[in-house]
């Protein structure tokens, strides 16, 4: 019995060790960085973008490049001019700002996302590098605009802009680039087509079209013409070369069955009177429709005349409603 409990205790301790090792290895979940900490490399699920990446990020006003081996890639952009700003778009759901803090850093810098989400950042502190100064999560998946500047264009020190972290599958895009469609909802019949058009900033940006269900509707990849294939709903997407996208929800319904049209040629109308006499008239379909309406409505509406007049050549022939036994059209 003692040996049993001894073995059980050893197994329990080993299990705790394995759990602890797993937690250490999964540092991105257990030891994820928090604002104010140094973050010299992106956490799992993030990727880092240098401030000067491909010239996509727009620096407005007066900026100069500082250099220090402790900065990300050895450089940082700096400005203490009140009208200076940083502008860019990104595709994703989250963003982090990683930069320098210094004794001459601004204590009133701000970050504005999508024009309405404003976050203050304080860069004033003892000199330190690659500090996580702000983090924004839980944005909707899509393109977001970002502006970093001084409120009211009044500087209280330096803005340092070193690097940003975004979703590992995210993308940095030029500021101000946009795409929209002339309609976000479209109704189509099977076999019918409609044209979607884009408005892009800058104007004339190259666009590629796609359908997420070509069994419901197809789209010309270059022109945006949508054609209904079968009943259902699908999404048509227009995408720029930089990854901006706009969508239209297309609902396709069955085409109405064509309704039979009334014949337009002449027909023979036979009317038998109660005395056995049969009258024959060769008349147009329109005349037959008028006679039928008169015959069916006369009993219900005495504003209709008691007789119906047919023109036969140069003379007129009248039939009395109460004297009609039956009639047929051949």
Number of strands: 27
Might you state the CATH topology name of the largest domain?
Answer: Jelly Rolls
Going by CATH, the homologous superfamily of the largest domain would be Galactose-binding domain-like
The helix/strand order is HHEEEEEEEEEEEEEEEEEEEEEEEEHEEE
Q: How widely separated are the two ends?
A: 108 Å
Supply the number of structural domains. Answer: 3
Helical coverage, percent range: 10-25%
**Percentage of residues in DSSP E strands:** 35-45%
Supply the CATH class of the largest domain: Mainly Beta
DSSP helix count?
Answer: 3
Overall, the morphology is: rod-shaped
Mean pLDDT: 86
The radius of gyration computed from the alpha-carbon positions, rounded to a whole number of angstroms, is 40 Å
Structural class: mainly beta
Protein name: Bacterial surface protein containing Ig-like domain
Pfam families: Big_2, CE2_N
InterPro entries: Big_2, CE2_N, Invasin/intimin_cell_adhesion
Organism: Clostridium saccharoperbutylacetonicum N1-4(HMT)
Describe this structure in words.
This protein has three domains: 145 residues, Sandwich (Jelly Rolls), CATH 2.60.120; 76 residues, Immunoglobulin-like, CATH 2.60.40; 63 residues, SH3 type barrels. The strands form eight sheets. Strands 2, 5, 7, 8, 10 and 13 form a six-stranded antiparallel sheet that branches. The protein starts with a helix and ends with a strand. The chain is rod-shaped. Helix content is 12%, strand content 45%.
